[in-house]
Amino acid sequence: MPISIHRSATAEDPPGGPDERSNATVRRLLRTRSGVVGCAIIAAFVLVALMAPVLGLWSPDTQDLLHTLARPSWSHPLGSDQLGRDLLSRVLYGARTSMGLALVVVGVALVIGTFLGLAAGLEGEWVDAVIMRAVDMLMAFPSILLALAIVSALGSGLLNTMIAIGISAIPRFTRIMRASVLALKTQEFIEAARAAGASDLYIARAHLLPNALAPVIVFAALLMADAVSIAAGLGFLGMGVQPPTAEWGAMLSEGRVYMRVAAHVVAFPGLAIMLMVLGFNLLGTGLRDALDVRLAD
Predict the structure, then answer these.
(1) For the chain, does the N or the C end have fewer beta carbons within 10 angstroms?
(2) Among the residues of 31-86, which ranges form H helices?
(3) Given a cut of 60, is residue 15 above it in pLDDT?
(4) Which of 8-22, 64-78, 216-230 has the lowest mean pLDDT?
């Protein structure tokens, strides 16, 4: 999904400095329907992840073999799985796993990709050529296939899943940041800074980075949805987070055999994945509208 949001001059920004501009962005975000719904969904998942030990009636790993595949009841509000483990507790702890994994992966990929894109766009010449050829090589593979290849080489597990998804995400951040920097380099305020004797480091820190971050932030929200989907896909294939850790993709894989006799074992983890992905996508759409100053009142 192409994103082309460029903030060049400060004349269009609200007066008063970074804090007031941030408040204006939040106000614009909360005036968009997708932003409000996305924030509500993600806030609910964050609360669920933080409160999992309190909200869960049972430990996510406690087995009750006398009540396997039990349907939803007062003692097990979402039922139990094939090992008698409480499905509500596992879904709640799965939110913690998926949310934490996505935050770490996207955060690390954003920092590395932003630095590489900034260096490529600002320095140009051989620096740009080396970085972008490496990015092109990585982007030649679909994200899920690249993640599968990395996990196959490193082995399954939470850490290796993070590494695999992070490596597949870095090239996309790099390309977006580079495109923003290239567009901003020709702006008059950058030329004025150079004419005043400002160094490349100062221009990057004071001018390019703040003005080029809008599309990167939007993409980060959208990539959170991708990270959750890819992590669930790896878990479903048995190459992601390993049992007994509660993870939605692995729960789908374990429960697919019992779909005809106990549909709830796959319905609730699948619904959780769908809602989290939907929330991040809506949040990304709302951020896109809020950060585009051309849509500001």
Answers:
(1) C
(2) 33-50, 52-55
(3) no
(4) 8-22
pLDDT at 22: 66
With respect to residue 65, please indicate whether it lies within any of the assigned structural domains: no
The span from the CA of 230 to the CA of 162, in Å, is 10
Residue 266 pLDDT: 93
Q: What is the pLDDT of residue 205?
A: 79
Place of tokens 């074992």: 265
Amino acid residing at 197: G
Question: Quick check: is 154 in a domain?
Answer: yes
Residue with tokens 């959208």: 222
Between CA 21 and CA 164 the distance in angstroms is: 36
Give the phi and the psi of residue 193 in degrees, each rounded to 5. -65, -40
pLDDT digits (tens, 9 = 90+) for 140-169: 888 888 888 888 888 888 888 899 899 989
Question: Cβ distance 134 to 193 under 8 Å?
Answer: no
What is the dihedral sign for C-alpha 218, 223, 224, 226?
A: positive
Give me 111's structure tokens.
């920092």
What pLDDT, in 10s, does the model give residues 84-142? 999 999 999 999 999 999 999 999 999 999 999 988 888 878 888 999 999 999 888 88
Range of the domain at 206: 15-59+77-295
- Give the residue among 199, 247, 277 at the shortest CA–CA distance from 97: 247
Closest of 9, 3, 14 to residue 296, by C-alpha: 14
Inside any domain, residue 7: no
Q: Which two tokens stand for residue 139?
A: 């982007």
Q: What CATH number does the domain containing 171 carry?
A: 1.10.3720.10
Specify if 253 maps to a domain.
yes
pTM of the full predicted structure? Answer: 0.83
Mention every residue, 6+ apart, whose C-beta is less than 8 A from residue 92.
Answer: 48, 49, 51, 52, 55, 56, 60, 246
Q: Round the CA-based radius of gyration of the chain to a whole number and report it.
A: 22
